[in-house]
Amino acid sequence: MPFQSLDAAVFDFPEFPPGEVWLAGAGPGDPRLLTLLALHALRTADVIIHDALVDERILTLIRPDATLTLAGKRGGQPSAKQGDINQRLIDLARDNKRVLRLKGGDPFVFGRGGEEALALVDAGVPFRVIPGVTAGLSGLALAGIPATTRDTNHAVILASGHRAVDSGAIADWIRLAQTGQPIVMYMAISNLPGIVAAFLDAGMASETPVAIVCSATTRDERVLETRLGDVVKDAFDGEICAPAIVVVGATAGLRSQFLKTMVRWQ
Ligand code: SAH
Q: Catalytic: which of 46, 51, 55, 106?
């Protein structure tokens, strides 16, 4: 049955008190992956400050008279400084607004939501957290790649590829590779050559399955299935793929089996 009304649901949705900041995750893209709490927040907030990665269809769900502001930080592009975003959240809350800070995926997974929470604590501003569906798990799942199976892995590593080029970081990548567990990487495309070299140095087989899921859960989704030894060449063959999740390890190799009968959501 189509989703009619939040009020018809038996759940209790708290009032959004003026002067509070709600730090929420919007999921990886597909609006149907929003949580009900995030939808409630979108419908009641006075001001929404969102990241560039939040899907446009989600932003249509706000109250018609609410104020919508982009505060995205995308690598390499000029964008609001983190300190300015923090200050804006604090100022709006002190101005007695219902402030919704909406981030892609989960707010506390590589989203600087933790930093914003600390700034709110320092300023004495009350806040709540609305977890979101993180791209590194959901984007892979919907592409036919499970986070774990008992046959392949007993742990999964979520890693940021953002600061991967200095020597300390390379040593970290080598240690992660030595665990033998799948490594799911956010923000890893621009540093991919260095990261892959570290994995090979760590003794990872060049045949290790790799998948790159670009624009996961959106209409532009593309999936590249390859091997560690070929991924750098393959990844930079076509158009730049962003945003993208890269997974290296045995779970990536399960995709071809899953796709035999896995039906895609339309
Ligand atoms: N808080 C977010 C992650 C923010 S970091 C979360 O929990 O998902 C930004 C990175 O997330 C991007 O560089 C990319 O690696 C990943 N990402 C976010 N949305 C994505 C999507 N729809 N498809 C693929 N990767 C995505």
A: 51
| 90-103 residue pLDDT tens | 999 999 999 999 99
For the chain, the three-class secondary structure string (H helix, E strand, C coil) is CCCCCCCCCCCCCCCCCCCCEEEEECECCCHHHCCHHHHHHHHHCCEEEECCCCCHHHHCCCCCCCEEEECCCCCCCCCCCHHHHHHHHHHHHHCCCCEEEEECECCCCCCCHHHHHHHHHHHCCCEEEECCCCHHHHHHHHCCCCCCCCCCCCCCEEEECCCCCCHHHHHHHHHHHHCCCCEEEECCCCCHHHHHHHHHHCCCCCCCEEEEEECCCCCCCEEEEEECCCHHHHHCCCCCCCCEEEEECHHHHHHHHHCCCCCCCC
Told to judge if 234 belongs to the known catalytic residues of this protein, a careful annotator would answer: no
- Is 187 labeled as catalytic in the residue annotation? yes
Q: Which pLDDT band, with edges at 50, 70 and 90, does 191 fall under?
A: very high
Chain segment 195-235, per-residue pLDDT in tens: 999 999 999 999 999 999 999 999 999 999 999 999 999 98
Residues framing ligand 1 (Cβ under 6 A): 28-29, 53, 103-106, 109-111, 134-135, 139, 186-187, 213, 215-218, 243-245
pLDDT in tens, 103-136: 999 999 998 999 999 999 999 999 999 999 999 9
